[in-house]
Design a protein that fits this description.
With about 130 residues, this protein is of the alpha/beta class. It is built from 7 helices and 6 strands, in the order βααβαβαααβαββ.
Length: about 130
Amino acid sequence: MNVCFDVDGTVTAQPEFFSLLSHAVKESGGDVFIVTSRTRTIETKRATREELKELGIVYDHLFILHDRTEAERICPFGNLDWYEKYIFQKTIYCKANHVDIYFDDEEKVINLFRQFLPEVQVFQVHRKGVI
């Protein structure tokens, strides 16, 4: 089973839960993917890796979204606004990596998954827990 987590507002909102889940997925032979819309720099990638380690998250792959220009270029749906095209990268990444379960805190991301990648089970994270 392949599982993917967003970082900010998701892993950071429930770090104990995602630490336990990431370890359980790895122990069962699955892959853990991390995706974030943080600024795409070498320093950000390093800092994100350090933060995930401190939070006890184990993972196989970390993907930082491309900038807005690249996002608009790769999104096949012209009817989406610029921000939806930007976060649509999460669906592209999950489809390419055969993700089965995805966690995010943002309603727009959840809606994109439900519309364009309905085969992925999505869960929305709130500060009080996962729903």
